[in-house]
Design brief:
This protein is an alpha+beta fold. The chain has helices at residues 14-27, 52-60; strands at residues 2-9, 32-36, 41-46, 65-73.
């Protein structure tokens, strides 16, 4: 699994976050996507590597400014207690 963290400028509210999340879900095969206007980032979890250009384009098409994209290997963490 892979985790992509995308720097996104221009989000002002919860609807902005939702708009970006929906655009990413429609454009790419993702397991999970979340956006944070406070952190100015969108996090995407996928099973396979993504085309970073397609990810950047999906977010940019919503009208927000896309910055750096970081990719890292990701494993779901289980908590037992």
């Amino acid at each position: 699994m892979w985790k992509y963290t995308v720097h996104v400028d221009g989000m002002m509210c919860g609807m902005c976050e939702s708009h970006i999340n929906d655009a990413v879900r429609k454009a790419l095969p993702v397991k999970k996507v979340t956006s944070s206007r406070k952190k100015k980032e969108t996090t995407v979890i996928t099973e396979a590597e993504l085309d970073e250009y397609a990810l950047r384009s999906a977010i940019a098409a919503t009208g927000y400014e896309v910055g750096q994209i970081q990719k890292e290997s990701w494993e779901k963490k289980f908590f037992f207690g």
